Amino acid sequence: MRDFRVVSRCYIAGELTRKGAPLNIGGSIYNPQDPIGKLLFNVPGMAAGFEADLIRARTREGMAVAKAKGKLRGRQPKLSRRQEADLVTLHRGGTHTTTEIADLFGVARSTVHRAIQRAAPAT
Q1: Domain limits of the chain?
Q2: Cα Rg of the chain, angstroms
Q3: What sign does the dihedral 2-6-9-15 (CA atoms) show?
Q4: What's the predicted TM-score (pTM) here?
């Protein structure tokens, strides 16, 4: 599968070439049909792609360092284990709907459903 960014850059450069848009750099006008014009049309896109790849690599490296130090824990749960146990107890009691339980704990109904699923015995 081809990288979308590469396809996008080629598409944009192709469209500009097809429409005959000249490239003006420092007062010099380059024709996108000749070899130098083609090169100069594609260099900015390649530089932008390179920069994006560098940012992604640095981000992955930083996340790996944070994970090694135990600082990368992911999203924190909305409810503590005690709150989740109380929520399941209320649900099993049958006196409250999931909407009422969600309002009581200040969470979405989907959070209530997931807590109930986690508490259900594995079959």
Answers
A1: 4-68, 81-119
A2: 28
A3: negative
A4: 0.47
